[in-house]
Specification:
With about 120 residues, this protein is mostly helical. The chain is built from 7 helices and no strands. It folds into 2 domains: about 70 residues, lambda repressor-like DNA-binding domains (434 Repressor (Amino-terminal Domain), Orthogonal Bundle), CATH 1.10.260; about 35 residues.
């Protein structure tokens, strides 16, 4: 499941909306919404994100959060390390090969480490 899919499912559940009803309102199939929620479909485009924001009637920070989640919810990532150091390529490959073995705490720790490194770089 992608971050966007998890948020969309949470909003649907909070509001007691079925995938079938939401799909009909958005003009898509329930199968498409299911695939979006489960990460079997690529991140939705801007027009679909806007439809979903409108459907749930979210504004300001909540709408911005949905947009950010959509842009960070590509289930099949390609990391291009061409022109980078051998260390960068090795790290990208190690992460790709082992990410399934990491739990939420491991991922949160790695994310915090990455954010700290990016802050130091400015």
């Amino acid at each position: 499941m992608t971050p966007f899919g998890a948020k969309m499912r949470a909003l649907r559940t909070e509001r007691g909306v079925s995938q079938k009803d939401m799909a009909a309102a958005l003009g898509v199939s329930a199968a498409y919404l299911s695939a979006l929620e489960h990460g079997r479909r690529g991140a939705p485009g801007w027009p679909m994100v806007q439809k979903i924001i409108g459907y749930f009637n979210v504004i300001w920070d909540d709408a911005e959060e949905l947009e950010k989640l959509a842009w960070n919810s590509h289930p099949r990532i390609v990391v291009d390390t061409a022109g980078l150091s051998p260390q960068a390529t090795a790290f990208a490959n190690k992460l790709a090969g082992t990410i399934r073995r990491l739990d939420g705490a491991d991922l949160a720790s790695l994310d915090a480490t990455l954010e700290e490194a990016l802050r130091r770089k400015g």
